[in-house]
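Convert to structure. Protein one:
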Amino acid sequence: MAWLVITIAGVLEAVWAIALKESDGFSKLVPSLIFLAAGGASIILLALALRDLPVGTGYAVWTGIGAVGAALAGIVVLGEAATATRLAAIALIATGIVWLALQEGAEA
């Protein structure tokens, strides 16, 4: 269950990152409210997941999912560049997240 919770928390981290960009320095109300709601929910879910996961693994997976999600959303939603090197870097981060999660599962 902790893995599902940390995954949702990571997705919400990507949501708040995109909302933060769209808030234009908190000058737009709706994206600012989305940022606050997603950010709060993400932190709460992270705290719940860390009841059962080691902090190093949980935090790394949370930030990794958020980073990959924000980078992909930037490409898909915001039209940011999708260069080969950028996509390769995103793939390396995703690989690291999966590898770390699998190592945690193997040690349990």
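Protein two, convert as well:
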Amino acid sequence: MTAGQLETPEVNLYYTTRGAGPNFLILQGGAGNAEGSEALANRMADQFTVITYDRRGLSRSTPVRTEGYEIAAHAADAARLLAALSPEAAFVFGSSMGALIGLELAAHHGALVRLLVAHEPPAYRLFEGAEQEQALSGHAELLATFQREGLPAAMKVMIARSGVDFNDREPEVPLPTVAAADPQAAAQRAADFTHFLRWDVPAVARYQPDMAALAAEKAKIVPAVGTTSASTFPYRSAIALAGMLGVTAAEFPGGHTGYVMRPKAFAAKLKELLRQE
């Protein structure tokens, strides 16, 4: 694995690359930084050059300012990174917020995307009426809990609403934790989650996908869901997106965080999909 720093007028993006083959960009969900999908990245590196990075505001990516970013700004960062690393279009996988960034990337920087797998994007403004209100109220509840009770309580709400089952993981995957053995790493992890809740979660709630632009790129977009996520809003959002694009949603092992909890099976499914392109 090699690490680098892409300097732009707004942010210096920390990124890593590993493996060999066509470029494959992973867009993290939540407060995941470049290491947030380590197990998946390692399993994809036998066939692809895997790219991961810290989103602006997280860990080693340092922005000029740290607030008010929309999903479009994150997609522009991803576009700059891809363009700087290779003239060839890349395979892209995004999960949760990362899937929203992937959709924005495909819609407005489509020449850089060879195929996008958008896993359970919380695109709740695709819903209508009471369903949209119910989905967005979950974001409001999460933010209210964070402001009132702090990070640990907000994390519990977020985990519950996304249907994460910590028992549904491959044997070699340890139980995830916000904490870390190293105090400095633990402090950075807490800072990343705080940034995510304060600035990224509101941006997710505001995001309105450009369906006309996505429809023009639908041949390269694969909405995806987890096998155990059917009761959650991110799952329903992916199904709604697939219906609007007139495509079939792909089914992946596990739930909303299947790429972290079940990386072996998840990577096998990803490779199967990408081979079909």
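The mean pLDDT is 92. The chain is about 45% helix and 20% strand.
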